[in-house]
Write a structure and sequence with these properties.
17 helices, globular, Cytochrome p450, binds protoporphyrin IX containing FE, 12 strands, alpha+beta, 402 residues
Length: 402
Amino acid sequence: MIDFSDGTFLQDPYPTLNAVREETAIFDQRDEAGMQRWFLTRYDDVFRALRDRRLGRVPEPIMTSDDVGLPPPRDDWKPYYDIEQWSLLMLEPPEHRRLRQLIYREFTPKRVEELRPVVSEHAERLLQQAAAGSTFDLLADFAQPFSVHVIAELLGAPIQDWPRYLDWSHRIVKMYELDTTEDQAAAAVTASQEFGDWCRELIDRRRRSPGSDLISGLCTVETSDGRLSDDEIVSTIILLLNAGHEATVNALGNGMVSLLDAEGAWASVCNRDVRARDAIEEMIRFDPPLQLFERWVLGDDVSYGGRAFAAGEKIAMLFGSANRDPRHFPEPDTFVVTRADASHITFGGGIHTCIGAPLARLELSVALEALIAVVPELRLAQVPVRNPAFVIHGYESVIVAA
Ligand code: HEM
Protein backbone atom coordinates (compact mmCIF):
# COMPACT_ATOMS: atom_id res chain seq x y z
CA MET A 1 0.00 0.00 0.00
CA ILE A 2 2.95 2.34 0.63
CA ASP A 3 6.24 2.03 -1.24
CA PHE A 4 8.58 3.11 1.56
CA SER A 5 11.56 3.28 -0.84
CA ASP A 6 9.88 5.49 -3.46
CA GLY A 7 11.88 8.69 -4.04
CA THR A 8 8.83 10.98 -4.29
CA PHE A 9 7.37 9.50 -1.12
CA LEU A 10 10.67 10.02 0.75
CA GLN A 11 10.90 13.67 -0.38
CA ASP A 12 7.52 14.39 1.23
CA PRO A 13 5.73 11.40 2.80
CA TYR A 14 2.74 13.37 4.11
CA PRO A 15 0.44 13.44 1.03
CA THR A 16 0.62 9.62 0.92
CA LEU A 17 0.43 9.15 4.70
CA ASN A 18 -2.59 11.50 4.86
CA ALA A 19 -4.41 9.74 2.02
CA VAL A 20 -3.81 6.28 3.53
CA ARG A 21 -4.78 7.38 7.07
CA GLU A 22 -8.06 8.87 5.83
CA GLU A 23 -8.82 5.69 3.91
CA THR A 24 -7.99 3.26 6.72
CA ALA A 25 -6.87 3.09 10.35
CA ILE A 26 -4.82 -0.01 9.64
CA PHE A 27 -3.25 -1.87 6.72
CA ASP A 28 -0.84 -4.74 6.34
CA GLN A 29 2.17 -5.16 4.14
CA ARG A 30 4.95 -7.72 3.73
CA ASP A 31 8.59 -6.71 3.29
CA GLU A 32 11.01 -8.37 0.87
CA ALA A 33 11.85 -11.05 3.42
CA GLY A 34 8.12 -11.89 3.70
CA MET A 35 7.67 -10.38 7.19
CA GLN A 36 4.10 -9.13 7.65
CA ARG A 37 3.47 -5.89 9.55
CA TRP A 38 0.22 -4.18 10.53
CA PHE A 39 0.61 -0.41 10.20
CA LEU A 40 -1.38 1.89 12.50
CA THR A 41 -2.08 5.25 10.89
CA ARG A 42 -4.19 7.20 13.43
CA TYR A 43 -3.30 9.16 16.54
CA ASP A 44 -5.55 7.37 19.05
CA ASP A 45 -4.36 3.90 18.04
CA VAL A 46 -0.67 4.87 18.09
CA PHE A 47 -1.08 6.65 21.44
CA ARG A 48 -2.76 3.58 22.96
CA ALA A 49 -0.38 1.04 21.40
CA LEU A 50 2.66 2.83 22.87
CA ARG A 51 1.21 2.37 26.36
CA ASP A 52 -0.16 -1.17 25.89
CA ARG A 53 1.73 -3.64 28.10
CA ARG A 54 0.46 -6.55 25.97
CA LEU A 55 2.75 -5.28 23.21
CA GLY A 56 6.53 -5.61 23.52
CA ARG A 57 9.72 -4.67 21.73
CA VAL A 58 10.83 -8.30 21.33
CA PRO A 59 8.82 -11.54 20.94
CA GLU A 60 10.98 -13.57 23.36
CA PRO A 61 8.89 -13.17 26.52
CA ILE A 62 6.31 -15.54 25.02
CA MET A 63 7.77 -17.10 21.88
CA THR A 64 10.92 -17.65 19.87
CA SER A 65 11.98 -15.62 16.84
CA ASP A 66 11.36 -18.76 14.80
CA ASP A 67 7.71 -18.96 16.01
CA VAL A 68 7.00 -15.46 14.72
CA GLY A 69 8.62 -16.08 11.35
CA LEU A 70 11.85 -14.14 11.84
CA PRO A 71 14.81 -15.51 9.88
CA PRO A 72 17.42 -17.25 12.10
CA PRO A 73 20.14 -14.96 13.49
CA ARG A 74 23.03 -14.59 11.04
CA ASP A 75 26.50 -15.52 12.29
CA ASP A 76 28.08 -12.71 10.29
CA TRP A 77 25.85 -10.14 12.07
CA LYS A 78 27.00 -11.14 15.58
CA PRO A 79 28.76 -7.82 16.37
CA TYR A 80 25.49 -6.01 15.61
CA TYR A 81 23.33 -8.37 17.72
CA ASP A 82 25.87 -8.02 20.56
CA ILE A 83 25.41 -4.26 20.81
CA GLU A 84 21.62 -4.49 20.40
CA GLN A 85 21.19 -7.21 22.98
CA TRP A 86 21.41 -4.95 26.01
CA SER A 87 20.01 -1.83 24.39
CA LEU A 88 17.22 -0.37 26.55
CA LEU A 89 15.11 -0.21 23.43
CA MET A 90 15.25 -4.00 23.10
CA LEU A 91 14.61 -4.88 26.74
CA GLU A 92 11.43 -5.54 28.67
CA PRO A 93 10.92 -5.45 32.45
CA PRO A 94 12.52 -6.35 34.81
CA GLU A 95 15.87 -5.79 32.96
CA HIS A 96 14.49 -2.70 31.28
CA ARG A 97 13.44 -1.11 34.58
CA ARG A 98 16.79 -1.81 36.24
CA LEU A 99 18.86 -0.26 33.46
CA ARG A 100 16.49 2.65 32.78
CA GLN A 101 16.44 3.69 36.45
CA LEU A 102 20.23 3.88 36.47
CA ILE A 103 20.36 6.14 33.42
CA TYR A 104 17.28 8.19 34.28
CA ARG A 105 19.09 9.94 37.15
CA GLU A 106 21.17 11.84 34.58
CA PHE A 107 18.20 12.77 32.42
CA THR A 108 15.63 14.17 34.87
CA PRO A 109 14.21 17.57 33.81
CA LYS A 110 15.99 19.16 36.81
CA ARG A 111 19.40 17.64 36.01
CA VAL A 112 19.01 18.58 32.34
CA GLU A 113 18.04 22.18 33.15
CA GLU A 114 21.34 22.51 35.04
CA LEU A 115 23.10 21.89 31.72
CA ARG A 116 21.54 25.00 30.10
CA PRO A 117 24.60 27.31 30.52
CA VAL A 118 27.04 24.81 29.01
CA VAL A 119 24.62 23.84 26.22
CA SER A 120 24.11 27.55 25.38
CA GLU A 121 27.86 28.09 25.33
CA HIS A 122 28.31 25.24 22.80
CA ALA A 123 25.44 26.54 20.64
CA GLU A 124 26.72 30.11 20.44
CA ARG A 125 30.35 29.18 19.84
CA LEU A 126 29.57 26.63 17.11
CA LEU A 127 27.01 28.88 15.43
CA GLN A 128 29.43 31.84 15.34
CA GLN A 129 31.95 29.57 13.61
CA ALA A 130 29.38 28.15 11.17
CA ALA A 131 27.93 31.54 10.25
CA ALA A 132 31.30 33.15 9.52
CA GLY A 133 30.71 32.77 5.75
CA SER A 134 27.67 33.98 3.80
CA THR A 135 26.06 30.53 3.58
CA PHE A 136 26.44 27.40 5.70
CA ASP A 137 24.96 23.93 6.19
CA LEU A 138 22.69 24.05 9.21
CA LEU A 139 23.19 20.30 9.74
CA ALA A 140 26.87 19.54 9.08
CA ASP A 141 28.22 22.91 10.24
CA PHE A 142 26.01 23.48 13.29
CA ALA A 143 23.39 20.92 14.41
CA GLN A 144 25.68 17.90 14.18
CA PRO A 145 28.74 19.20 16.08
CA PHE A 146 26.39 20.89 18.58
CA SER A 147 24.40 17.77 19.49
CA VAL A 148 27.47 15.55 19.52
CA HIS A 149 29.35 17.93 21.85
CA VAL A 150 26.41 18.03 24.28
CA ILE A 151 25.89 14.26 24.51
CA ALA A 152 29.63 13.51 24.54
CA GLU A 153 30.14 15.89 27.43
CA LEU A 154 27.20 14.47 29.37
CA LEU A 155 28.45 10.91 28.90
CA GLY A 156 32.15 11.69 29.30
CA ALA A 157 32.99 10.37 25.82
CA PRO A 158 36.32 11.67 24.41
CA ILE A 159 35.31 14.54 22.14
CA GLN A 160 38.29 14.23 19.80
CA ASP A 161 36.83 10.91 18.58
CA TRP A 162 33.50 12.42 17.52
CA PRO A 163 33.93 12.02 13.75
CA ARG A 164 34.43 8.29 14.37
CA TYR A 165 31.35 7.74 16.51
CA LEU A 166 29.26 9.92 14.20
CA ASP A 167 30.24 7.69 11.30
CA TRP A 168 29.60 4.45 13.28
CA SER A 169 26.24 5.78 14.36
CA HIS A 170 25.15 6.75 10.81
CA ARG A 171 26.02 3.25 9.62
CA ILE A 172 24.34 1.40 12.51
CA VAL A 173 20.98 3.23 12.28
CA LYS A 174 20.55 2.01 8.70
CA MET A 175 19.56 -1.31 10.33
CA TYR A 176 16.33 0.32 11.56
CA GLU A 177 15.04 0.99 8.03
CA LEU A 178 12.42 -1.23 6.39
CA ASP A 179 14.57 -1.89 3.31
CA THR A 180 18.17 -2.21 4.56
CA THR A 181 20.44 -3.46 1.75
CA GLU A 182 23.14 -6.14 2.18
CA ASP A 183 25.85 -3.48 1.75
CA GLN A 184 24.31 -1.27 4.42
CA ALA A 185 23.98 -4.24 6.78
CA ALA A 186 27.64 -5.20 6.23
CA ALA A 187 28.72 -1.60 6.96
CA ALA A 188 26.56 -1.56 10.12
CA VAL A 189 28.10 -4.82 11.35
CA THR A 190 31.66 -3.49 10.87
CA ALA A 191 30.67 -0.26 12.62
CA SER A 192 29.19 -2.26 15.54
CA GLN A 193 32.45 -4.20 15.93
CA GLU A 194 34.60 -1.05 15.87
CA PHE A 195 32.26 0.93 18.13
CA GLY A 196 32.11 -1.99 20.61
CA ASP A 197 35.93 -2.26 20.73
CA TRP A 198 36.22 1.49 21.25
CA CYS A 199 33.71 1.32 24.15
CA ARG A 200 35.59 -1.52 25.83
CA GLU A 201 38.83 0.47 25.79
CA LEU A 202 36.99 3.45 27.20
CA ILE A 203 35.42 1.35 29.97
CA ASP A 204 38.91 0.12 30.91
CA ARG A 205 40.22 3.67 31.10
CA ARG A 206 37.25 4.91 33.17
CA ARG A 207 37.57 1.99 35.61
CA ARG A 208 41.23 2.86 36.15
CA SER A 209 40.53 6.58 36.65
CA PRO A 210 36.83 7.38 37.02
CA GLY A 211 35.46 10.91 36.61
CA SER A 212 32.08 12.40 37.48
CA ASP A 213 30.56 11.59 34.08
CA LEU A 214 27.82 9.10 33.19
CA ILE A 215 30.14 6.49 31.65
CA SER A 216 32.29 6.42 34.80
CA GLY A 217 29.07 6.08 36.79
CA LEU A 218 27.93 3.10 34.71
CA CYS A 219 31.37 1.46 35.08
CA THR A 220 31.48 1.72 38.85
CA VAL A 221 27.83 1.62 39.96
CA GLU A 222 26.79 -1.03 42.48
CA THR A 223 23.12 -1.98 42.14
CA SER A 224 21.26 -4.27 44.54
CA ASP A 225 21.95 -7.12 42.11
CA GLY A 226 25.59 -6.31 41.50
CA ARG A 227 27.50 -4.36 38.85
CA LEU A 228 26.44 -3.84 35.29
CA SER A 229 28.16 -6.27 32.96
CA ASP A 230 30.56 -4.90 30.35
CA ASP A 231 28.12 -5.98 27.62
CA GLU A 232 25.36 -3.94 29.25
CA ILE A 233 27.63 -0.91 29.54
CA VAL A 234 28.75 -1.16 25.90
CA SER A 235 25.14 -1.37 24.63
CA THR A 236 24.12 1.55 26.82
CA ILE A 237 27.00 3.81 25.75
CA ILE A 238 26.27 3.11 22.08
CA LEU A 239 22.52 3.64 22.47
CA LEU A 240 22.98 6.94 24.33
CA LEU A 241 25.64 8.26 21.95
CA ASN A 242 23.56 7.35 18.87
CA ALA A 243 20.14 8.36 20.20
CA GLY A 244 21.71 11.47 21.68
CA HIS A 245 22.35 13.11 18.34
CA GLU A 246 20.73 11.28 15.36
CA ALA A 247 17.15 12.36 16.12
CA THR A 248 18.00 15.77 17.59
CA VAL A 249 20.01 16.82 14.52
CA ASN A 250 17.20 15.79 12.18
CA ALA A 251 14.61 17.41 14.46
CA LEU A 252 16.46 20.71 14.17
CA GLY A 253 16.92 20.38 10.39
CA ASN A 254 13.31 19.33 9.69
CA GLY A 255 11.95 21.86 12.17
CA MET A 256 13.96 24.80 10.82
CA VAL A 257 12.96 24.02 7.22
CA SER A 258 9.27 23.98 8.29
CA LEU A 259 9.70 27.18 10.30
CA LEU A 260 11.48 29.06 7.51
CA ASP A 261 8.94 27.80 4.95
CA ALA A 262 5.87 28.86 6.93
CA GLU A 263 4.74 32.41 6.13
CA GLY A 264 5.68 34.82 8.96
CA ALA A 265 6.77 32.08 11.40
CA TRP A 266 10.47 32.98 11.61
CA ALA A 267 9.59 36.68 12.03
CA SER A 268 7.22 35.93 14.89
CA VAL A 269 9.88 33.84 16.64
CA CYS A 270 12.46 36.63 16.18
CA ASN A 271 9.96 39.28 17.37
CA ARG A 272 9.24 37.20 20.47
CA ASP A 273 5.55 36.88 19.59
CA VAL A 274 6.05 33.20 20.41
CA ARG A 275 8.43 31.58 22.89
CA ALA A 276 11.19 29.33 21.55
CA ARG A 277 10.00 26.51 23.84
CA ASP A 278 6.53 26.64 22.23
CA ALA A 279 7.82 26.97 18.66
CA ILE A 280 9.90 23.79 19.02
CA GLU A 281 6.82 21.72 19.92
CA GLU A 282 5.28 22.55 16.54
CA MET A 283 8.64 21.97 14.82
CA ILE A 284 8.81 18.40 16.14
CA ARG A 285 5.07 17.66 15.64
CA PHE A 286 4.98 18.83 12.04
CA ASP A 287 7.87 16.76 10.68
CA PRO A 288 9.17 14.28 13.28
CA PRO A 289 12.66 12.84 12.78
CA LEU A 290 11.65 9.27 13.67
CA GLN A 291 8.73 8.03 11.62
CA LEU A 292 8.15 4.43 12.68
CA PHE A 293 8.46 2.18 15.73
CA GLU A 294 7.41 -1.44 16.04
CA ARG A 295 5.94 -3.77 18.64
CA TRP A 296 5.14 -7.49 18.89
CA VAL A 297 1.74 -8.62 20.12
CA LEU A 298 2.41 -10.64 23.28
CA GLY A 299 -1.09 -11.03 24.76
CA ASP A 300 -4.67 -11.91 23.94
CA ASP A 301 -7.71 -9.74 23.19
CA VAL A 302 -5.56 -7.11 21.51
CA SER A 303 -7.46 -4.99 19.02
CA TYR A 304 -6.40 -1.95 16.98
CA GLY A 305 -8.03 -0.16 14.09
CA GLY A 306 -11.00 -2.51 14.41
CA ARG A 307 -8.86 -5.63 13.91
CA ALA A 308 -8.32 -8.40 16.48
CA PHE A 309 -4.68 -9.47 16.81
CA ALA A 310 -3.15 -12.83 17.66
CA ALA A 311 0.01 -13.20 19.75
CA GLY A 312 3.13 -13.09 17.56
CA GLU A 313 1.84 -10.52 15.06
CA LYS A 314 3.83 -7.36 14.38
CA ILE A 315 2.51 -3.82 14.70
CA ALA A 316 4.22 -0.76 13.13
CA MET A 317 3.22 2.68 14.40
CA LEU A 318 3.42 5.57 11.92
CA PHE A 319 4.40 8.61 14.01
CA GLY A 320 4.34 11.22 11.24
CA SER A 321 0.88 10.07 10.19
CA ALA A 322 -0.40 10.21 13.79
CA ASN A 323 1.02 13.73 14.21
CA ARG A 324 -0.99 14.86 11.17
CA ASP A 325 -4.27 13.22 12.24
CA PRO A 326 -7.08 15.81 11.94
CA ARG A 327 -9.05 13.86 14.60
CA HIS A 328 -6.52 15.13 17.13
CA PHE A 329 -4.87 18.27 15.69
CA PRO A 330 -6.99 20.96 13.98
CA GLU A 331 -5.55 21.89 10.57
CA PRO A 332 -2.70 19.42 10.99
CA ASP A 333 -1.01 20.19 7.65
CA THR A 334 -0.59 23.84 8.53
CA PHE A 335 2.55 24.76 10.49
CA VAL A 336 1.10 26.90 13.31
CA VAL A 337 4.12 28.25 15.18
CA THR A 338 1.91 29.33 18.13
CA ARG A 339 0.14 25.94 18.44
CA ALA A 340 2.11 25.02 21.61
CA ASP A 341 0.58 21.52 21.75
CA ALA A 342 2.99 18.97 23.22
CA SER A 343 0.58 16.04 22.91
CA HIS A 344 2.29 14.88 19.69
CA ILE A 345 3.66 11.35 19.39
CA THR A 346 7.24 12.42 18.54
CA PHE A 347 8.88 11.16 21.78
CA GLY A 348 6.80 7.97 22.01
CA GLY A 349 5.01 7.00 25.22
CA GLY A 350 4.74 4.22 27.81
CA ILE A 351 7.73 2.46 29.35
CA HIS A 352 10.06 3.15 26.39
CA THR A 353 9.17 6.83 26.16
CA CYS A 354 12.22 8.85 25.16
CA ILE A 355 14.52 9.24 28.14
CA GLY A 356 16.31 12.06 26.33
CA ALA A 357 13.18 14.18 25.66
CA PRO A 358 14.04 16.88 28.25
CA LEU A 359 17.58 17.08 26.83
CA ALA A 360 16.33 17.19 23.22
CA ARG A 361 13.86 19.97 24.12
CA LEU A 362 16.63 21.92 25.86
CA GLU A 363 18.97 21.55 22.87
CA LEU A 364 16.28 22.55 20.38
CA SER A 365 15.18 25.64 22.27
CA VAL A 366 18.77 26.71 23.00
CA ALA A 367 19.66 26.21 19.30
CA LEU A 368 16.65 28.26 18.24
CA GLU A 369 17.55 31.06 20.67
CA ALA A 370 21.12 31.06 19.32
CA LEU A 371 19.87 31.24 15.71
CA ILE A 372 17.61 34.19 16.58
CA ALA A 373 20.50 36.00 18.28
CA VAL A 374 23.30 35.24 15.82
CA VAL A 375 21.57 35.04 12.40
CA PRO A 376 18.25 36.94 12.59
CA GLU A 377 18.18 37.34 8.78
CA LEU A 378 18.31 33.55 8.32
CA ARG A 379 16.71 32.09 5.17
CA LEU A 380 16.98 28.94 3.07
CA ALA A 381 19.62 29.44 0.37
CA GLN A 382 18.80 26.25 -1.56
CA VAL A 383 15.95 23.76 -1.70
CA PRO A 384 17.05 21.21 0.92
CA VAL A 385 17.58 17.61 -0.22
CA ARG A 386 16.07 14.72 1.75
CA ASN A 387 18.00 11.66 2.90
CA PRO A 388 16.79 8.57 1.02
CA ALA A 389 15.44 6.92 4.19
CA PHE A 390 12.03 6.72 5.86
CA VAL A 391 12.43 5.70 9.51
CA ILE A 392 15.27 8.12 10.29
CA HIS A 393 13.69 11.06 8.52
CA GLY A 394 15.86 14.07 7.75
CA TYR A 395 17.78 16.09 5.16
CA GLU A 396 21.20 15.46 3.60
CA SER A 397 21.93 19.14 4.02
CA VAL A 398 20.08 22.37 4.78
CA ILE A 399 22.01 25.23 3.18
CA VAL A 400 21.04 28.56 4.69
CA ALA A 401 22.11 32.18 4.20
CA ALA A 402 22.90 34.24 7.28
C1 HEM B 1 14.19 15.20 18.97
C2 HEM B 1 14.99 14.24 19.40
C3 HEM B 1 14.53 12.87 19.82
C4 HEM B 1 13.44 12.16 19.41
C5 HEM B 1 12.38 12.56 18.41
C6 HEM B 1 13.46 10.89 20.14
C7 HEM B 1 12.48 9.92 20.02
C8 HEM B 1 12.44 8.76 20.76
C9 HEM B 1 11.36 7.79 20.73
C10 HEM B 1 10.12 7.90 19.87
C11 HEM B 1 11.66 6.79 21.59
C12 HEM B 1 10.78 5.59 21.95
C13 HEM B 1 11.01 4.39 21.10
C14 HEM B 1 9.98 3.30 21.34
O1 HEM B 1 8.93 3.52 21.94
O2 HEM B 1 10.20 2.17 20.89
C15 HEM B 1 12.96 7.11 22.16
C16 HEM B 1 13.63 6.31 23.07
C17 HEM B 1 14.87 6.64 23.58
N1 HEM B 1 15.56 7.82 23.40
FE1 HEM B 1 15.01 9.39 22.26
N2 HEM B 1 14.57 10.87 20.93
C18 HEM B 1 15.24 12.05 20.79
C19 HEM B 1 16.37 12.45 21.46
C20 HEM B 1 17.03 11.69 22.38
C21 HEM B 1 18.19 12.13 23.12
C22 HEM B 1 18.84 13.53 23.06
C23 HEM B 1 18.57 11.09 23.88
C24 HEM B 1 19.73 11.12 24.83
C25 HEM B 1 20.53 10.23 25.09
C26 HEM B 1 17.65 9.97 23.63
C27 HEM B 1 17.70 8.72 24.21
C28 HEM B 1 16.73 7.74 24.10
C29 HEM B 1 16.80 6.44 24.76
C30 HEM B 1 17.94 5.95 25.64
C31 HEM B 1 15.64 5.76 24.44
C32 HEM B 1 15.23 4.35 24.88
C33 HEM B 1 14.31 4.43 26.07
C34 HEM B 1 13.75 3.09 26.51
O3 HEM B 1 13.68 2.15 25.71
O4 HEM B 1 13.39 2.99 27.68
N3 HEM B 1 16.73 10.39 22.73
N4 HEM B 1 13.40 8.32 21.65
